[in-house]
Amino acid sequence: MAALTTDDSVVLASATGPTLGDTDFRFLRDFVLQHCGISLGEHKRQLVQGRLLRRLRALGLSGFGAYCELLRKDPDGELGELASCISTNVTSFFREMHHYDLLVDDLLPRWLEEKRGGKLRIWSAGCSTGEEPYALAMVLAEALERLGSSVDAKILATDLSPQALEAARKGVYALDRLSGVSDARRKRWFLRGQGAYEGLACVHPRLRELVTIQPLNLLHEWPMRGPFDAIFCRNVVIYFDKPTKQRLFSRYADMIGSRGYLFLGHSESMYGLSDDFDLVGRTVYRKRQ
Description:
Keywords: Methyltransferase, S-adenosyl-L-methionine, Transferase. The chain has helices at 22-36, 45-59, 64-73, 75-86, 97-114, 131-147, 162-170, 183-189, 205-210, 242-255, and strands at 13-14, 17-18, 119-125, 152-159, 172-174, 190-192, 200-203, 211-215, 228-233, 256-264, 277-281, 284-287. By secondary structure, it is of the alpha/beta class.
């Protein structure tokens, strides 16, 4: 009887599927850092193994070695699916409400007055399943109606995850996902499902008019030119290492117009990472002139 090899290039079958060995984990860790800017420590190995097992089954692959070979041959083709597996898409409507209060009470009225006949552009970078851009669209549509503005206003929503983008494009949510939406906004901006769609709600067509949803890897080239009046990148850079954050903030500064705004998540900070912005509120940064 031959001894069981400890060579980490060999995939060992466990009770639930193949095991992620050292060699394959090192490759995945380097690949994810290079292409997604996400640093995976050793403590993430079991999480990565568990989440990727579903992907291996979907592709009909026997083990992680075969999956790594797929990434080597076609990194771009599988990158979005990999990012979906290792990322946690936690989002909600009107998350961090103080950001929306700033838009409603100050920024949108001022922008719509200053830009009459012009353009207003907001970017939701890392839009996940769409709650953020549609919440932005609600306050934007309300401001346009209230002020009777003629501004050409649009929201760009981007994400790397194909599954998240598909959900965002559908714009259909379980009613319990609308807990952050006021009753008035539920009635105004959602169409409630009936029959087979009982328990679901679809965003109003007016919101779809304001939002453009596109795939984008923040670490790769950006096809849009800007400038943007505001960029929302909330609970995204928390996954990145310091050099990646610095590069990203520098690129954001190039895409934001004079005195434009960058919104980060509640646990994120630009401290020591950029000299292009001033902190003007809770995780709200304004570009320096």
